[in-house]
Amino acid sequence: MNINMLSDEDKMPMLETTLDNLREGVNVVDENGTLIFSNRASADYAHSTVSKMIGSQITEFYPRAALLEVLRTKKPQLDVKIEHDDGRKYVVNAVPLIINGKFKGGVATFRDVTEIENLGQKLELLKQELTFSKVDDAFELIVGKDGSLKEAIIIAQRSIGALGGPRHSVISGESGTGKTLLARAMFYFAKKIHVISEDASFIEVNCAQFTNPDIAAVEIFGSEKGAFTGATEKRGLFELADGGVLFLDEAHALAHYQTMLLKAVESGKIRRIGGRKDIDINVIVIAASTKNLKNVLLPELYQRLAQYEIKLPPLRERPLSEKEKLLNCFIENYEYNAGDKYNVKLKIDFTNEAKGILLNAYYPRNIRQFRDITYATIDAAVPLISDVPASKKVTAVVDINHIPFYMFESSGSDGVYQEQEEPKTIESFNFDDSKMDREEILNKIIFTLNEKGLGPRKIARVLEEKGYDIKYYQVAYRLKKQRNSNI
Ligand SMILES: Nc1ncnc2c1ncn2[C@@H]1O[C@H](COP(=O)(O)OP(=O)(O)OP(=O)(O)O)[C@@H](O)[C@H]1O
Fold it and tell me: Where is the Sigma-54 factor interaction domain (predicted)?
């Protein structure tokens, strides 16, 4: 029996059952972006139901859907990585839906790669640990050490190494500005100067990851058997960090347990949830947050934690020279990984235009986003491992066409330090520094966006959001001039 032997009536339920049992999400939209089909996995990812989704605009559930690009350009979007506002990451394949030769919308299949990415991040931390253990100065790996982060690093060193003994500290800064990296550097610094022992632990916890504050409390303070239904005897993170550093990332989420936290940092004692006796702990607490902890925590707790207050500036406030250094670090890492994983001798070159666009873009999620977009750009320029020549030597030139399209989209921001920069006029960009002709760059952006299906008004809007002051008719004029010169 094959599918054609089924009646039309039977075919549909069979297809629906098949699609509903896929782990991949599936969405189908008509040419207006209205969902005409979603499978169960897609509804689960969107925290909705299939019946609620069908008939609605896809943007209600997937604001950055790759299908929007398919509708705009009528071209496939393959292996696109999209990060949604809730932090989940998806790899999407979206293609036009052509019926009887006519464009009718688009079909997307996608899978959630958040867990894989998180594992990748853990691996990165392990690598970082290896690197830290090799350098003499733990802060050496931090780009900006002698520049925009000089002050922050001096305070960090004092918090660990002052003669009065190590103190707790607070690191604040937008998401992706390097709070975890700095906390780790402080931990290695403490080891190097023998403030903590060689086998001391660095325990890191993202306090915002817990859906329920009670679960967070059990994780952090531990629990005694029978403290609540199903409770087991459990050592909390404070106990695990004893003798070392406890890094409380997104510490504002601990607001429910401030008195317990206060006791821990004030008297060096904790009590497990449901426990009757205090346990002595000797821990350096580094609390980090994207929010201003002063406004969230009890004043006495804030005062105890923020004995040293370290502020990390957002990427947009760091000088171009530091951004270039970061870019070079990302490129070196990429080349190193190709050698390490596949034994490929990879050499990556960037055209000035591509470099200029990456360096001048606005990254609401700061260095992490700058890194991820750089890697995605390089991904598009290098061959697949299956196409690498037998010599295992590869040179890749990254140009403007390799930059992912979503770079040019307006990007949302999060966190409290996210004030937009003053819109810059085109003239105020210092293109001389990056040895580029600014007119050439602007034209390239305009033509690339136009090739991707955007009209002058949309292009002007995108450029305005990126800080370029240009009117739609100026864009139209440039496009017309270009077209005439091509005739
Ligand atoms: N000054 C820097 N020099 C080199 N790399 C950096 C620097 N700052 C951050 N990075 C890199 O950027 C990425 C994000 O940094 P990190 O995780 O420390 O940020 P974060 O502020 O802790 O982020 P979040 O608020 O999301 O927890 C990491 O890969 C880190 O190594």
Answer: 142-379
